[in-house]
Amino acid sequence: MTLHQAYDAVFVKRHAYLAVQVLISGALRCICIFTLFIAFQAYGYYNICLGHSVDEMRPWCKARLPLLYNYIQSHYWGVGFLRYFQLKQLPNFLLASPILSLALCSIVYYAKSRPEIFFSLGFLASVEEKNSSAVLFSLETVQRSSIARFPGKSSSKIQGHHNLRQRKHMTRGDPVALPLENDSLAKLGYLTVSCLPFILQLAFMAATAFFVMHVQVATRFLSASPPLYWFASNLMVQRKRWAYLIWAYSAAYILLGSLLFSNFYPFT
């Protein structure tokens, strides 16, 4: 988002100063995100490494970039790039194959449907699509807040109020207000440019789970990614056979997974 805003500030709005502000704001947000991780590493280095001789130090203390968490993952759990690719781990790869296949299919489906958006990281998206995604997001946010404030009213009445407000904005000549029922971009669902960050995040998480992590935790790790559920729901609507398969797998995972995981079997 920060790169897109900086790009629009330089090439669309022609304001370099605005681009600098956007980049500084993005850098501060990144610093806030990584602050806890850095604090944990510093705390471990202060308690374990400082005040000890070189012979008494752990190997990670002598590294150029001492990272306690990486050392624990690699030394005690065997986490690393391609380190889990062993013949004895084949059952774990089979266990994670459904969720990894669903993730791969959702990413490929988005890339094939919107190649110009996917491979350009959204920079080639039209201004109309970006504005439409922003308006759609703001309208959905207002609708959710209205439902939260007025739980007794039905969603149809609330939607009618929003449609009435949209018509009033349209009659007043507001170019930003777009009717959702006539907006073709809103019908794209999760193929819009606003969902691209979730797709890219899913691709990174799936690659990390397959090549680096213990692959049997892929289901638990990827279950927090929204594109999995968007693609599965779209697949269930278009292809009924896949719908029964997805329902059967989900039910079996809940029932069998609860029994196996509680008995310390590698099912997660």
From TrEMBL:
<dbReference type="GO" id="GO:0031501">
    <property type="term" value="C:mannosyltransferase complex"/>
</dbReference>
<keyword id="KW-0472">Membrane</keyword>
<keyword id="KW-0812">Transmembrane</keyword>
<dbReference type="GO" id="GO:0006506">
    <property type="term" value="P:GPI anchor biosynthetic process"/>
</dbReference>
<keyword id="KW-0337">GPI-anchor biosynthesis</keyword>
<keyword id="KW-1133">Transmembrane helix</keyword>
<comment type="pathway">
    <text>Glycolipid biosynthesis; glycosylphosphatidylinositol-anchor biosynthesis.</text>
</comment>
<dbReference type="GO" id="GO:0000009">
    <property type="term" value="F:alpha-1,6-mannosyltransferase activity"/>
</dbReference>
<feature type="transmembrane region" description="Helical">
    <location>
        <begin position="188"/>
        <end position="211"/>
    </location>
</feature>
<keyword id="KW-0328">Glycosyltransferase</keyword>
<dbReference type="GO" id="GO:0004376">
    <property type="term" value="F:GPI mannosyltransferase activity"/>
</dbReference>
<feature type="transmembrane region" description="Helical">
    <location>
        <begin position="93"/>
        <end position="111"/>
    </location>
</feature>
<dbReference type="Pfam" id="PF04188">
    <property type="entry name" value="Mannosyl_trans2"/>
</dbReference>
<feature type="transmembrane region" description="Helical">
    <location>
        <begin position="244"/>
        <end position="265"/>
    </location>
</feature>
<comment type="function">
    <text>Mannosyltransferase involved in glycosylphosphatidylinositol-anchor biosynthesis.</text>
</comment>
<dbReference type="InterPro" id="IPR007315">
    <property type="entry name" value="PIG-V/Gpi18"/>
</dbReference>
<keyword id="KW-0808">Transferase</keyword>
<comment type="similarity">
    <text>Belongs to the PIGV family.</text>
</comment>
<dbReference type="GO" id="GO:0005789">
    <property type="term" value="C:endoplasmic reticulum membrane"/>
</dbReference>
<protein>
    <recommendedName>
        <fullName>GPI mannosyltransferase 2</fullName>
        <ecNumber>2.4.1.-</ecNumber>
    </recommendedName>
</protein>
<feature type="transmembrane region" description="Helical">
    <location>
        <begin position="20"/>
        <end position="46"/>
    </location>
</feature>
<keyword id="KW-0256">Endoplasmic reticulum</keyword>
